[in-house]
Amino acid sequence: MQNANGSLSGLESDSIGKVFVRYLIPSLVGMLMMSVNVVIDGIFVGQRLGEVALAGVNVAVPVFSLYIAISLWVGIGGATIYSGHLGARQLKEARSVFTHSLTLIFSLTLLLAGLAFLFRYKLAGFLGANEDTMPYVMDYMNVLLIGGFAITVQNAFSVFVRNDGNPNLAMISLVITAACNIVLNYLFLFVLDFGVAGSALAVVIGAAIGASVLFLHFRRPAATLRFVRPGLSWKLAQRTFAIGFPSFLAEVGIAVFTAGYNMAMVHTAGTVGVSAFSILNYVHSVMLMVFIGMGSAIQPPLSYYRGAKMASRQRALIRIAVTTAFGTGLAVLLVGLTCAEAIVSVFGSFAGEVRQMAVTGIRLFFIGYMFMGVNFVMMTYFQTSGQVKMATWITIAREMLLMVALLLLLPRFLGTTGVWLSIPLSELIVLITVYVYVRRRSGGGSATAETA
């Protein structure tokens, strides 16, 4: 990079371990804060309005996931191209990609949110709303559909700020968003008594405030990001969509996962099962953000190294990331096995049947975290190294093809146990396919021997 941009020069000179940690910590904190937005909603709603309202918000959560999916689709796709230009020292092209991506994300969000609002009742039914949860689902969903563009703009903008060598500001933006969400949730639910609509409003307002913080990046002397004359290029949009598609599918998969598990639980255990799953799902949203954070941490340097043609640094970085992801998943499994009851208690006092089902679910479901993190990291690696088909396979198989097939099959023989085990088995099968693919590509050598 140019000497003026010292924030990115360390990518070439610092050790890979130092580069990884520099991006990992802000990315993890930022993503955890993003997950806090959903978890805080669950805690406040559960404590204030009870388990049925909590289940209703959980049914509507895929709408939030869809916003994140759209922002990552365009954000990761555009930022990968952006960082490639930075690595090749093409600043004019990089800035054009940034402006194009922000314009695209804003327009796309408004279009899709408008269509979803027109068919919101059918959408709620598809996501698993029943007679008990429908009022809460609609109250929460209506607010998200109207104001959710703030979520997509903030998330996409933060991806570019992180790729421009300022991961700390991206983290601060998300921390402020979470803090605002906590304060506003308390205000809207416990003081003003707005119900679940107030909880959704807290998310939207918090995102808008967090997005405004990101504009401080433009005041940095080392910043490369600049807005240029806006315009839409179909060719650039196609490339952005193609590269970012696995990230989009990963988030859509979260919505499919939530809807699939809700429907499976309704079928096998009724509202009790949906309430138990809603508790686990809030915890799961935190872990998803941890693993997405690991992928987000390696994406900027991987994209930069690809543009700068530094294949050896790409391989070294992916080795560290895979090891970290597996170790994290194993640690979380141990926490789930020993602290499941304490985790459930955080969300409130529930009926004994709901509580016991949630405790069992945590202990079984957490097995999947040993494999999930590695799958996310490898998906990001394939995505940034131009192997989009393999990245797409990982995202489609994990929470769509294999998960849905297992949800249809396992509960017939194992009941709710089969529901809980569907994701762990799905993640394991996908990881095996990744291992086989890499071994074949590298001629039977190391799993990280493959060049970009």
Taking all Cα atoms into account, the compactness measure Rg is 21 Å
Helix content: over 70%
Number of spatially distinct domains = 1
How would you describe the shape? globular
Oligomer: single chain
Largest sheet: none
GO biological process, one term: response to antibiotic
Organism: Paenibacillus ginsengarvi
Protein name: Multidrug export protein MepA
Main location: membrane
Task: Walk me through the structure.
With 452 residues, the chain is mainly alpha-helical. It has one domain. Helices cover 84% and strands 0% of the residues. The chain is built from 15 helices and no strands. The longest helix has 75 residues, at 234-308. It is globular. It starts with 5 loop residues before the first helix and ends in an 11-residue tail after the last helix. Residues 1-7 and 445-452 have low confidence and may be disordered. This is Multidrug export protein MepA. It holds the Pfam family MatE. It is found in: Cell membrane.
Tell me the layout of helices and strands.
Elements: H1 6-13, H2 16-49, H3 51-87, H4 91-118, H5 120-127, H6 134-147, H7 149-163, H8 167-191, H9 196-213, H10 234-308, H11 311-345, H12 352-365, H13 369-384, H14 388-414, H15 416-441
Helix pairs in contact: 2-3, 2-8, 2-9, 2-10, 2-11, 3-4, 3-6, 3-7, 3-10, 4-7, 5-6, 6-9, 7-8, 7-9, 8-9, 10-11, 10-12, 10-13, 10-14, 11-12, 11-13, 12-15, 13-14, 13-15, 14-15
